[in-house]
Amino acid sequence: AVQYIEDRTGRRIINTSDVDYFDSWGSYLELSRYPVASLDSITYYDNDNAQQTLSSALYVIDLESRPTKVFVEYNAALPGILSKLNSIAVNYTAGGGTTWAGAPETIKQALYLLVGDWYNNRENSGEKKLSDISYGVEALLGINKTNWGF
Fold it and tell me: How far is 60 from 37, CA to CA, in rounded Å?
């Protein structure tokens, strides 16, 4: 149930280490999970195919936007990267804390509804599809989606 909620909303409930991969720098890097507790490092493969760590002086993270974005610092020059898939890795911690206490009430209510529904209909678990999730659960999760186009 927790994984379903996190996947549907893009929100981490309890602090978890995440890595997002990118092929190029672009104008910004958009992280897939929210809220971001810390950005631990950005690594990349340089033109010689050696893994490097990007200096934190070269970027700024916008923790207020949903989804969270990492921008190049004003007037900073980013290093060249090897032209290959997943040449940039952003390592970060996303979540609202170390316990469920900090979770929004709508997330907690959606979890209770989901677990209750799955428990009450456990004999149909092989027949029930995720598309059968109750409207109440989806409405509560919709309030907390990271990206409305999700």
Answer: 14
